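cron nightly-structures :: item 1 of 1
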Amino acid sequence: MRNFNENTITDAVLERLQSATDARVRQISEALVRHLHAFVREVRPTQKEWEYGIDFLTRTGHMCDDKRQEFILLSDTLGVSMLIDAINHSSMHGATESTVLGPFFVQDAPEIELGKDISNGIEGDPLFVTGSVSTVDGLPLSGAWVDVWHSDEDGNYDVQQLSEIGGLAMRARFRTDASGRFSFWSIKPAAYPIPHDGPVGEMLKAQGRHPWRPAHVHFMISAPGFEQLVTHIFVAGDQYLDSDVVFGVKDDLVREFVLRNPGEDADGRATNRKYYYLNYNFGLKRAGESSHSVESTKISRIPVAQT
């Protein structure tokens, strides 16, 4: 077969895919070709535009290394990451909504005792967090792992300023107690822009979009026999809740960070300072309760410091 034109080339490519020995590879390849060819026919790019598209993807790849994954940022900002999350994590009564992992997760964060301060001396408004982990039926899950991480009051994560602060901060791992509860002190996070000094930032500017995420605390929670939960709790009233650059906000994940006056801390200690308080109760699905099986999400996605 030869002499293909705009109307015949798609079928020719699809025909050559029939020799794929793996059925899933063939299914994905066929869908990719059909939709990609349809996209090209719809937008009808010029040769110059096509070359720019190839250059954009090339530069995106060049921005990727062991500290930054520009393709994941591209997926996040085009809503693909949240679409993948929605396909693989269906809603269920009693189960906490999931959202994107985000680019600042670090494997093997330090394990900290419940109730301790994880801020590592970083300045900011004090924040006390309490919560619980249970089944969708409300049964407490003791010994569940709870990973937490968040930004400082300027919107920076520890991995963006390691040379300045000398180590990890505002992140830790806990084990829930016999009642499935956990608690820790830290500082109140702030909104922040995703790294936008590369091709993804260039794309956002061309699309007339900002690079900002609303303030939030990340949680990754796991227990044997249950699906791993990756989610955020967002600060109510944040200006970017309705325009999160990665489309990660869900109403059930928005909570008041309540400002409390001096007197008695939430953990019973006397205090002469104001502090913020957050409480959230997390529900986990049993393994296999979603429409798709879910593999562990423990990967490192640490970008370099943003501009």
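cron nightly-structures :: done
The chain is about 25% helix and 20% strand.
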